[in-house]
Amino acid sequence: MVDDERPVLELRGITKRFPGVLANDHVDFDLRRREVHALLGENGAGKSTLMNVLYGLYSPDEGEIRIKGDPVRMRSPKDAIDHGIGMVHQHFMLIPVMTVAENIVLGNEPLDAGVLLDYGAARKRVEELARTFGFRIDPDARVEAITVGQQQRVEILKALYRGAEILILDEPTAVLTPQEALELFEILRTLVREGMSIIFISHKLGEVLEIADRITVLRRGKAVDTVPRAGATEEGLARMMVGREVLLRVEKAAAQPTDPALRVEDIRVLDDRRLEAVRGVSFEVRRGEIVGIAGVDGNGQSELIDALSGLRHPTSGKVRLGDRDVTGASAGQILDLGLGHIPEDRQRRGLVLDFTLAENIALHDFDRPPNSRFGWLFPKRMIRRAQGLLRQFDVRGGGAQTRAAALSGGNQQKVVLAREMARDPKLLIAAQPTRGLDVGAIEFVHRRLVEARDGGEAVLLVSLELDEILSLSDRILVLYEGRVVAEHGPDVTEEELGIEMTGGRGKEAVA
Amino acid sequence: MIARAEGFEPRTVLARITSPRMVGIVGIALGVIAFWLALPPVTVRSAPAPIALGILAVAAGIWAFARGERHVGGGAAVAGVVGIVGALVTMQSTTANLKDVFVWSALAAATLRYATPLTFAAIGGMFSERSGVVNIGLEGMMLMGAFFGAWGADKTGSWVGGLAFGIAAGGALALVHAVFSIHLRADQIVSGTAVNFLALGITGYIYNDVYGNNGTPNDLPAIPDVNIGFLDSIPPHALGNFLDGAFGSLNLMIWIALALLPVSYVVMFRTAVGLRIRSVGEHPRAADTVGISVYGTRYAAVTLSGMLAAMGGVFLSLGFVNSFTENMTAGRGFIALAALIFGGWRPFGAFAACVLFGFSSALAQRLPDLSTSESAAWPVLFQTLPYVLTLIAVAGIIGRSIPPAAVGRPYKKQ
Amino acid sequence: MTEASKPPPPASSPETIPSVAARLAFYQRAGGVITPLLTAVVAFFIAGLVILVTTHKNPLSTYRAIFDGTGLNWFFHVGSHSIGLPFSDSRVWFPWDTGSAAAMNLQQTLIVVTPLILTGLAVAFAFRCGLFNIGGNGQYTVGAVVAVQFGIWFAGLPGPLHVLLAMAAATVAGAMWAGIAGLLKATVGAHEVITTIMLNWIALWIASYLVGFGGPMQDPRQISAPVTRQIAESAKLKIFWGNALLQGLHIGIVIAIFALFVYWIVLNRTTLGYEVKAVGFNPEAARYGGISVARNYFLAMAISGAFAGLAGAIDILGWEFNLDLTEVQSVQIGFIGIAVALLGRNTAVGVFLSAILFGALLTGTSTRNLDPTIFKPELAGNLTRIIQGLVVLFVGADLIILYLWQARRKLPFARKADQR
After folding, report:
1. Cα nearest neighbour of B273 on chain A
2. What pLDDT sits at residue A509?
3. Which of B30, B57, B91 lies at the terminal end of a domain, its last residue?
4. How many CB atoms lie within 10 A of CB A274?
5. Which of A97, B16, B372, C308 is a good FRET partner for C377, with 20 to 30 A between their CA atoms?
6. CATH class label, A247-338+425-511
7. Closest Cα partner for B136 from B277, B255, B309?
8. ipTM of the assembly?
9. Residues A456, A287: contact at Cβ < 8 Å?
10. Model pLDDT, residue C275
11. DSSP assigned state of B380
């Protein structure tokens, strides 16, 4: 299948530096025609940077790019597009309020009378392309109204519309269910049949072994090795990615749950567009256990957490924290009643980056003794308290008077953890707690969550990473389209979860 | 994906008529009628009728509000209150005075005159904001147009020269705003405010330097009016009279502004250029990745907005008042921005708002003729009407509009 | 830092645009006092070019003439003079002549600096909460109107009480006026820039009605002049330097300086200040932390308006003693407060120094103090506006400061902050 002649793309000695980090260190990479070549590595290994260099978004400090043997300079995405390279970004570059057709033709619009946009021609072309490559898409649908999987197809069509022969896909399955991922692989195989060459960026070993013809592993900016799929194993690849044996599961003792800290009774919550995102969810979390909520992004997890933490009010149903009814209470009130919340996005929701660490740690209790009295603040006391916590949680990169922005992501997350866990909450909600962290930081966070559980706290874990859910949870709930569709113990398989996450077999809640 | 709302149940005609939304709309209508009753030609003089209607309007508003139709309900309540107050106030004056003030054709013409500078600035603002750049500096750009238009007309001896000068000045100031907001990624509101200060200072400085105490010359070349002769011969007689009074001799710039509306609509929503402008305003990085120049598009849009706002200013000094005085724009640029928001960043919507604001200005102008006593001071309060209306509009009582997604955020190229 | 910082991800997360409060805080750290100084110098330089090009006069001599008019040159004439001690008749040695012409100019400057400090604080406080209060003019006017009325009423009260009452009422009025914008922002999210601008004009016209011909506050003994009655003697602020008949310096300046301390204390030593800053830096995180963003928006605007309203009161009680139509319609002090706050980077010390700079410019270019043969005062007044505009313009620009900062040191640190 793969054409064995001269590679259609070669990257030689690509080096890219950013202040304080060498993102790409003399990386060599080549792509053959009709090949699916996977680029594998952890977060921060340099995969995205390499592709951004190829796509003209960055200029390399050293190295050269050759397309079909000829050296080229990529000064902007336009150059890359002209050379037949198309990129499907991890975060879609689509304009939500515009239609599929408008998004696809943007920048290369078919014109009527030289000036007016010929929407009919655009629509027709989109339909042709979709037919050729075998997927269904409605050209007149607004992008904000179609599913994520369909949006991804629009991105692919964008590249095809511009005559791409090389397609780069950056973590394409991060936002898909296992089923949608399989559909994507089918599309990729069709594309390859039609003559395309594909670069597939991922950090997921299983997928890469499924779809790739060759796999290049990057680690800390360097290309470790390029291996053919035949003979590659998960363990082998993982070792190349990380450089040591990887602990895939957290070691923990069995859970000893006691009484419920959180009781959710049939709540319904609206999202920002006033549509129901949570449609009658009931569950409980007991002290001494970790309950994990699995689900594809956008099935109501965020709205559920908002409702539990007082940032949104359920339209019906009850939420009980301990034995207090907190339905409709404000965020401040619920936090006071014993909720700890590690929010999804530490930089936007968890920390005030311009505050010092001491000020951040005091975020929930700055308005009570010992930090203040009758409205008067005591900064020294805040600093002293923070110092103790920073030591306890091994936060590096600064002291109590350092601004939070100066810390790395992992240390910032530790600060958030320190703040929440030091309050001995009855219930700790952890939303995507290890997003964007490196392996060391992830291990730290996982250990702390298990410690909290063992200390008698109730932990509600919401994560998009199935690995994390499976390795930490004592009980797993699957959320699909706003309902809990399944409940499992910790020894369920990924496949089963994956199917339930897309509404397949499994206990379907009463509609 | 996310759960969707349940599908609509089929509605019977009756259900439609008594739905909260309908009730709210009727309430708004009642409020307007309450006011209109007190005006010529009906000129009702007794309070009960308008008050009754007004109260009904408020009631309808409350009904609608309580059933979830917050915007329509709020609007009806406001309309009811305004209707009662307006009717009572107009009843204070004599019928003769009222007839004076409410010569509808003259009022229409005045409305258009007041609305025109707003329209130019609002359309300019639309281009800028749709490309993602907030333009608080419309006020300053209009002022530049007003002064440099007058000065230019004086120096070149023709209004065309003045118009050219004015447009160039507005464009130049806009370019300053563009450089700081786009390339230097300044906070766009701070930059816009700075630009307003600069305009005040520059126009004041040169005005004082060149014209000093005497002011601009009396024979400043004015932009001509367009005389349409045949209007008053349109039957029926009343209609012809009205059309002639309203449209018979409007300034050229007013017609240009009206022509600008469909043109800007087509450009923004029916051409590739407009698509690109909007994409840059909604999701600049997406536009960048397909090869559209975000900076270039924004520069062009902001400069255009300055030129258009300046045209509004030139009309002020050369077509409306025929002179220049310091700070003569008096906040019109801000009202234009509010009209733009009111109108949902679309040309015809913004124009409707401009007409509304123009109407209130025209009314405020003529209202001193309304009072029966010699030295009554309260007509001055009508000068606040445009600003109060804007406040209500921006407060979202009559519906909220959604701006371009990336407006106000500087774009960083990697 | 033990771990390498990651390169800027290409839209792997939506870019966080720092709030105005955060940016200005960054400038402060980045440049200390250098960058505001530099900004001012560049602005004056450009204005100097304007002078040179348009009038072919030497900018330096023009600036010298303006400087002499400000009275700041008073500090440079050191000699051997005496000054009276407060509350006694004895006199002690003092290095400066408190009765000279320069001293009188300085008094005038400080009279102008007083409301500028307050309107600067008003804008600065709002900025700390991430809000742009352009409504200083309107809040000032509202405060002035209320102060006049309270000054006219309650004529029997003892002096200090009357003054306190009038100032308190004006402060509350200013707070309420700004509070309208704060409320709209807190409840429906209406942008405070538009609402405060509209409120400016509404205040202007309401005040014009009140004070103008036939208005309820017009002095019935002067029906041909649109002016209010004078406030009672008991409401006037004491003059502590200079001749009361020649409009010496009143104790308002002390109140303004006191306000600077209040500003600092509230922001750095109270829970309210903590909340306001948190909301200003990151409203999302504040919300997630349980802080009520809406409540803080309202409070910040109200406090901001309080400062501006107080400015209006002090001017009335200190030297205007009544209000007339032309004054109402030419209020600019709120706008200048914006320049003051921005140049002063929203800090107490910064606002103080900026207020002196702009106050000096205003007095130095006034018709009273500027010799028309050296430079026409009307032109100089507009030149001041241009300088204000340039200052505000440069403050808004990240990159200029960033270039300066990077040129100094710590490339990675600057880049890291840039990534925010």
Report:
1. A115
2. 39
3. B91
4. 9
5. C308
6. alpha beta
7. B309
8. 0.80
9. yes
10. 94
11. G
Residue B142 lies inside a defined structural domain of this protein? yes
Alpha carbon of C122: minimum distance to chain A alpha carbons (Å): 21
B59 and B178 co-located in one domain:
no
**Residue with the larger pLDDT of the pair C257 and C87:** C257
Pairing type for strands A214-219 and A36-40 reads parallel
Q: Which span out of A128-132, A173-177, B236-240, B257-261 was modeled with the highest average pLDDT?
A: B257-261
pLDDT by residue (tens digit) across A41-84? 776 678 888 988 998 888 899 999 999 888 998 888 888 888 99
Angle between helices B294-314 and B252-270 in degrees, nearest 10: 160
Tell me how far the alpha carbon of residue A490 is from its chain's centroid. 22
Judged on CB neighbours under 10 Å (0-12, 13-18, 19+), B164 is middle
Q: Would you list the domain boundaries of chain C? A: 20-415
User: CB distance A107–B288 less than 8 Å?
Assistant: no
Phi, psi of B250 (to 5 degrees): -85, 155
Overall average pLDDT of the C370-385 stretch: 82
DSSP B208-254: HHHTTTT-S-TTPPPPPEEE-GGGGGSSSHHHHHHHHHHHTEEEHHH
The pLDDT tens digits of the residues spanning A132-148 come to 887 888 999 999 888 88
CA distance B268 to B290: 19
Specify whether domain A9-242 bears CATH 3.40.50.300. yes
Place of tokens 């005496």: C82
Same domain, B76 and B225: no
Chains touching chain B through at least 3 C-beta pairs below 8 angstroms are A, C
Q: Are A130 and A157 in contact (CB under 8 A)?
A: yes
Q: Can you tell me the distance from the alpha carbon of B342 to that of B401, in angstroms, rounded to the nearest whole number?
A: 7
Amino acid occupying residue C321? F
By the 8 A CB rule, do A497 and A488 touch?
A: yes
CATH number at B346 reads: 1.10.3470
Interface A-C, measured as beta-carbon pairs within 8 A, has a size of 139
d(CA A252, CA A376): 44
Mean pLDDT of B294-298: 94
User: CATH fold of C20-415, please?
Assistant: ABC transporter involved in vitamin B12 uptake, BtuC (1.10.3470)
- Burial status of residue C294 (CB atoms within 10 A of its CB: 0-12, 13-18, 19 or more): middle
Give the residue numbers spanning the domain of B339: 101-394
Please state the domain extents for chain A.
Answer: 9-242, 247-338+425-511
Confidence grade of residue C247 (pLDDT, cut at 50, 70, 90): confident
For A122, the closest chain B residue by CA position comes to: B272
Residues B139 and B200 in one domain: yes
Q: Is A333 exposed, middle or buried (0-12, 13-18, 19+ CB in 10 A)?
A: middle
CB A41 within 8 A of CB A23: no
Q: How many other C-beta atoms can be found within 10 angstroms of the C-beta atom of residue B184?
A: 19
Q: Which of C3, C270, C411 sits opposite A376 (nearest CB)?
A: C270
DSSP string, B47-103: SHHHHHHHHHHHHHHHHHHHTT-HHHHHHHHHHHHHHHHHHHHHHTS-HHHHHHHT-
DSSP C137: H
Chain C contact set for B184 (CB, 8 A): 396-400
